[in-house]
Amino acid sequence: MRGQFIADSDLVDGLSVRYLKLFGLWKVINDYRTSGKKNKIIKFELAITSLLVVPYICFQYLSYFHIDVDIQKATFLNLHSITGVQMFCKMLVFWFRIDSQSKLYNLVRKDFLDIPLHKRTVAKEIYKNITKKSNVFCNAAFLVNASIVTIAIVCPGLPVDYILYHTGNMDAVTTGRKKVLGGWYPFPMAQSPYFEAIFVYEAVILVIGGIFLGSYVCLFFQVLMCLYAQFAVLGYHLSTLKISPERGDTRVTENRRDDSKMYKELYGIVKEHRKLLSYANELRSVYNPLVTMILGMGLLVLIISVFQFLFGSTGNPMFIFRSLQFVAYQGIEACMFCFGSSFVETASSDLQFAIYSSDWYKANVKFRKAAQMMMMRSRKGVTLTAIRMYPVNVETLMAMLQFTYSVAALLSRMME
Q1: Phi, psi of 155 (to 5 degrees)
Q2: Peptide bond preceding 188: is omega within 30 degrees of 0, i.e. cis?
């Protein structure tokens, strides 16, 4: 698929792409849009991610065959391996669906919709308000990820001796050095220079996953928010369809009304709505595996964190803080997609109400039939889906929290 190069001046007003530029993703998208080929940047990033992250995930699960593992230690191993799998999946989704993702980036263009000149001032304000929300979410995700990376490297919290020789309460292990992430490696981990090499290796993985691959969430989320912005602007355009004074007396013949400017504008809106729906279907298809993975693994992290708090028997403030950080890391990504999908659902379904704000009651039968058809199409809002059919929205996020609470209550009863 070849398309136009997207310059900064082409972006919807207020949208920030500095994270994408910082990690080369903006150039990757534009190069693919203009040439149809993956450039050296994305190939290098995939190679580095594969060489570093995949061995780590393998070592995490191989550790079950080489060290003593109880339920509590298993939660540490799974907590870090789950995030590793999630990191790698983000890269794979982008790599294999880069053609569709590049096409979806048409949504970030401010000229994506054909809006009349006299309405573009208000449309610009709508774009700014929505892109401001997008930028706030992306900045929050970047800050949370950066804080996790910094604290984990500066204050490593997992004793090597605990990983190799102990089970049960981690706080009971006071000897030995501490590493950044959990897991076993086929080397004498507690000895130099293996310990230092492993420490650097895990720190690099954390930087790649928390900061670099975190930018992929911004890449996916911005397209979702721009779809929301396009639906919102189209709704504004639809709600302001009016019988203009230059048409004179409204008691004109049906033939004259058939060619009215308002009907022509509605016809253009119907075409733009059809285009938006096609992009929404493409976006849903591309994002389905990503959203399924993020929500599914996010739920696992929440359950693991609850288990650690209830069975870990640790009062270490740093451990509690780091556990909350991992929950925040998963939570903010889940919130971004759940809230973004809810925004799109609301804006797309509000089109049927926008028709009521127009002068439909003054228009002819042909206009009313076309408006009725569009109301039927927009009756069901557009949302992301998980596992192909499950709609993703704020209710999904609440269901995840409710399920986690139910698990916590069950575990508490087991402890009693």
Answers
A1: -125, 70
A2: no
